[in-house]
Amino acid sequence: MAKYYYLLLLFVALTVLIFLILEKRNKRRLLLKIKREWQEVSVVNNQKNENGLMKASMKIGAFTKAPTNIDRRTWEDLDLFKVFQKINHTYSTVGEEFLYYQLRTLKVKETDFEQLEARVAYFEKNPVVREQVQYHFASLGKINTNHSYLYFEPEKTKSLTEKFDFTFLGLLPVASLVLIFFAKELGIGLLIGSMMLNTILYLVYKAKLEVELTSMSYLIRALSLAKKLTTYDIPDQNKLKTAMTDLQKVLKWGVFFRTKNGSEAEMILEMFISIFLLPFVSFKVVIGLLQKQQQKLWLTWQTLGEIEAAISVLNYRENQAIKWCAPQFVATEILKGEGVDHPLIENPVGNPVFAAKPILITGSNASGKSTYIKSVAINCILAQTLHMALADSLEMKPGRVVTSMGIVDNLDDGDSYFMVEIKSLKRLLTESKEQAFTYCFIDEILRGTNTIERISASSSMIQWLSKQHCLCFIATHDIELATILGETCENIYFSEEVDEAQGFYFDYELKHGINTKRNALKLLRHLDFPSDLVASAENELAYFEAQHTWRVLPNEE
């Protein structure tokens, strides 16, 4: 009889030894990976699907009572998900979700960024601690679909024990071990039978309840991470200690949810806990404990997300942003900056911005108009969400950001290009009438209609916007608007050059005033269009400039 117990003890000892060796190896590999990836431009395991992040962002906004305030049209116009992916250097789902939420939520005053800057400054000065903290977040990892928010809403939580009573079955293997002392054959038979039954039940119910179990596992492991972070002298140490004091029982009962990162060691551990159905047995107890500590639970979850989001911001500032500055917020309705860059363009040409009244931007296609207004709009958002601007300097009054650009037909609703554009502009006008100060950005205003109506409607719309509580940036091809609105708007432009030596090229540098250059016909000649075609076009242009009307071309069949 004794030899069976010696063999069992030897098996357990070897299993524990293998588990520790694998854990040590995995930790060493993960730390090396974190160190290597810190200075890499591309990030690993970056979220490709935005739907889950949008849902999480809505939940965070509801729990914090600060909903996201950048609308979908503006988010898509400015390719802000691509900007998010460029900034995102998180290793956990909770960090990734809070970074996304922060980038979609404008703040209103300088003091709103004090915690972010305190975290960033600490991790910048303590890279060794930062790597250790990142290791813990990487150990927590990312999951494809995160339903952990279920457990912040007790009324929506289903009790697993209502499905099946696992307590009795979980105790059967333990009882069979005791029974071996009194009836060896019966005890061994019961042990083998209960182990097989419980393993099958574990696999069946784990598949049926994958969402609940995975989400509970992630939440418990996040709390375990919070407890580990209380040992580091980080800015949030005391906050986490206070919250975790009341969550200790949750960790004790949820110990069987702490595994799930997919390592070899944890696969071995899961094999053992499945025999006793331990995750199912502890589920009901953990639910009850969580329902009593909702406030502390949310505080811990939010703090974890904000810590890793801050580390991600630090990574972007140190390694990916060509340049950046802290914005200066002022009470005056003004936007002023130098060397403003676009985050998605390699080797961008930085341009100044100064707006105290509407800005009208003219120029030809591809000259830089659209890129410029997007650069300004994105930096207005970065300044008010992550407290940084990709510029040499930026001074601004806090305000909402609304755009109307990137318009396409809406075939699902049967809307033409012009109808979609009109609806987008109506939304922008409605926003500008609100009390809160607003930055409005319009690219190719009313492009979907004829020239005469476009100019008359555009000039009236810009004039109307100039009287609202907003600052507007409008890009257009219509040079006539620059003349009509000369007293209302500040005129700037981008231009191209055409010469024999360099051909056709852009410098992408902002210029003040109205663009008087006309290079389209020069470009036709430079690209060897038929000479009679180019000559005819030049004659028609000369006629229009002299007569202010177009003449009817004769039919020369």
Automatic annotation (TrEMBL):
Q: Where is the DNA mismatch repair proteins mutS family domain?
A: 356-542
Q: Which InterPro entries match?
A: DNA_mismatch_repair_MutS_C, MutS, P-loop_NTPase
**Coiled coil regions, renumbered to chain:** none
Source organism's superkingdom?
Bacteria
| Chain ranges passing through the membrane | 6-22, 164-182, 188-205, 268-290
Please give the Gene Ontology molecular function terms for this protein: ATP binding; ATP-dependent DNA damage sensor activity; mismatched DNA binding
Q: Which Pfam families match?
A: MutS_V
Q: What are the GO cellular component annotations?
A: cytosol
Gene3D superfamilies per the record? Answer: P-loop containing nucleotide triphosphate hydrolases
An example Gene Ontology biological process: mismatch repair
List UniProt keywords, sorted A-Z.
Answer: ATP-binding, DNA-binding, Membrane, Nucleotide-binding, Transmembrane, Transmembrane helix
Looking up PANTHER family in the UniProt record yields:
DNA MISMATCH REPAIR PROTEIN (PTHR11361:SF152), DNA MISMATCH REPAIR PROTEIN MUTS FAMILY MEMBER (PTHR11361)
The name this protein goes by in its record: DNA mismatch repair protein MutS
